[in-house]
Amino acid sequence: MSTETKETSGIVDSRKAPKTRWYKDAVIYQIYPRSFCDSNGDGIGDIRGIISKLDYLKELGVNCVWLSPCYKSPNADNGYDISNYRDIMDEFGTLDDWQEMLDGMHARGIRLVMDLVVNHTSDEHEWFIQSRSSVDNPYRDYYIWRKGRGKNGKKPPNNWTSRFTGSAWQYDETTKEFYLHLFHKKQPDLNWDNPKVRQEVVDICNYWFEKGVDGFRCDVITYISKEEGLPNGKFNPALMGDEHFVIGPHYHEYIHEINEKSWSLYDSMTVGEGQGITVKNAHEVVSEDRGELDCVFTFEHQTEVDSFLTTVPKKFSLRKWKEVFSNWQTLPDDCWNSLYIENHDYPRSLPRYGKLAYRKKVAKMLAISIQFLKGTPYVYQGQEIGMTNYENLTRKEYRDIVSIRIYDTVKKICPLFLPVVKWAMGKKARDHARAPMQWSAEKYAGFSTHEPWMPVNPNYTEINVADALADKDSIFYFYQKVIALRKGNEIIRNGSYKLYYPDDKKIWVYERAYNGKKYLIIASYTDKAAKFVVPDEWKNQNGTLLISNYDDSASKLSNLTLRPYEAIVYEV
Ligand code: GLC
Ligand code: CA
């Protein structure tokens, strides 16, 4: 496609370098395909379901989609265990369907970022089937095999733990050795020290680039390089071994290699899942001149609020939350931020950050808080209509491998704790974000005509897309407005960031400024009245209202008593 058509039609095509860094102007919508839309009535979301909703995405105004894995997989971890990187999961459709989806996206000016899960494969991948068959199979070194310890060699080679609980090693009868799996035993870790493995990754990326994808979200990418000798980890009750593989010894070298042989040859974006990346070391991972990743997802705002695998949720601290976001806003100019509060691994932001009684206000307040920051914002499916946690799931209804493991382990080894664990899972399980998308008040929320693979949240009769589209005041239209506001907006894209009142426990107030223009963003995180005093720098400046989540917020900047979850942006 010539550059001319590219520019005039809004059609996108990334099959050429140099990189334009288009992601800096993107708002990315994450689709978890299993739960998005079912087109053929088997209860499982699929690619033709996505195709049927492309106009919906266009209407929302997003210009990129991150699609969670849709490759062939036995679904131990819903597609994060890939058995064939070059084909589509049976339940989701065919490569032709996929191509039609991509073309449909591109024709609407929407790019596609695919999930790249290459720290591990499925144990059903051909490489692993070969690898486990004998010690001298050519694929043996594609994975990490070690002899066991102890007299009979039945003790795991070291004390590392799986991020999904238990030992990170699985004994395999055929060759009487253990293989490493930092996640489930059906997700054996690839051996990135083997140059053939790295070449496979390059080939996979280029295969999809040639088909037209625009980039990759790189799953647990900071785990790929393990320290030589695989030493024992220092004691840690939850995750043992981290210090020996999170941004391990060859991490930078390996990522640079993939970038050089693939990512940099296309007008692409890569966003890495950034376990272990902090504001301090982010520069070494994402600065433009390193030729590694373009940006990363930080976990700090998630773990400061409540962490992924620990069982008891922490209390939300607005002070901490502001501090973390504010720190990330100070990344050097040659680095770029990713802005997200929801994805398929976390519970919904409702009711995590605000009371359900104010659902619409809270969702809109969060939209303002996050979308006015510098970086690329993500909207996770359902966030744009304020979908909430499904708190009353029973053991039989949980589908996530992690939820099930935690529940069953606790039941087995300390049943007394089960009520606490049930309560905590009601707040924190990954399942909350994976319940089917609520399209309408029809049976099964319009997601499917068949009983879905996991139950629909019963609140679908009140919270659904059809109602949101019929209500001018809906969260959907608010997102639409905010997304439109970001387009071509240099203050949001490039402006400086300044935090006011860091210690205030009720409100987040920050400023964005660029070329003499500025915004003051004020967001209340409480259902109580909250006092806001105009900062000195903003006195006598005639700030006028740009956007707010109440329809009668003060039109001029002044000292205020904010109402529950009120959020206002003033501009000068
Ligand atoms: C990432 C994914 C998560 C998956 C894990 C293992 O954290 O986001 O869903 O379970 O990697 O692939
Ligand atoms: Ca289906």
* Overall pLDDT metric: 95
The strands making up the biggest β-sheet line up spatially as: 11-10-9-5-2-1-13-12
Report the top-level CATH class of the largest domain: Alpha Beta
CATH superfamily membership of the largest domain: Glycosidases
Percent helix? 25-40%
* Main pleated sheet: 8 strands, parallel
Produce a short descriptive summary.
This protein has helices at about 5-10, 45-50, 55-60, 95-105, 125-135, 195-210, 250-260, 280-285, 300-305, 320-330, 350, 360-370, 400-415, 420-430, 430-435, 465-470, 475-485, 490-495, and strands at about 30, 65, 70, 85-90, 110-115, 145, 170, 175-180, 215-220, 270-275, 295, 340, 375-380, 495-500, 505-515, 515-525, 530, 545-550, 560, 565-570.
Descriptive report:
The protein is α/β, with parallel strands linked by helices. The protein folds into two domains: 401 residues, Glycosidases (TIM Barrel, Alpha-Beta Barrel), CATH 3.20.20.80; 77 residues, Golgi alpha-mannosidase II (Immunoglobulin-like, Sandwich), CATH 2.60.40. The protein has 18 helices and 20 strands. The strands form five sheets. Strands 11-10-9-5-2-1-13-12 form an eight-stranded parallel β-sheet, covered by helices on one side. Helix 6 packs parallel to helix 7, helix 12 runs parallel beside helix 17 and helix 13 packs antiparallel against helix 14. The protein starts with a helix and ends with a strand. The site of calcium ion has 6 residues, from loops. Calcium ion binds next to loops.
